[in-house]
């Protein structure tokens, strides 16, 4: 299935967001997909995070959202996460997608409308 279509490196992105529990994970994931800010959000349980907060080393159990999207909507995606996330400082880390399975990338492209 090769349509001859190709995408520039970085046309798509993957965003990582940590969350405290299943309810937040599912709410954010569903909201992002329903608003067409993401084609797919994987919810990965079982993280243990160790970090410094206000000068103290903290430890907590979290889940990871792995969000597949277009780079053109990352700013809006980040704003949505910040507005709906319970943490004072939500982790949103975005990396460019360099390539992948073309049928999957075509599906991702058709699932998330372009934003200017």
Automatic annotation (TrEMBL):
<dbReference type="InterPro" id="IPR011322">
    <property type="entry name" value="N-reg_PII-like_a/b"/>
</dbReference>
<dbReference type="GO" id="GO:0010038">
    <property type="term" value="P:response to metal ion"/>
</dbReference>
<protein>
    <submittedName>
        <fullName>CutA1 divalent ion tolerance protein</fullName>
    </submittedName>
</protein>
<dbReference type="Pfam" id="PF03091">
    <property type="entry name" value="CutA1"/>
</dbReference>
<dbReference type="GO" id="GO:0005507">
    <property type="term" value="F:copper ion binding"/>
</dbReference>
<dbReference type="InterPro" id="IPR004323">
    <property type="entry name" value="Ion_tolerance_CutA"/>
</dbReference>
<comment type="similarity">
    <text>Belongs to the CutA family.</text>
</comment>
<dbReference type="InterPro" id="IPR015867">
    <property type="entry name" value="N-reg_PII/ATP_PRibTrfase_C"/>
</dbReference>
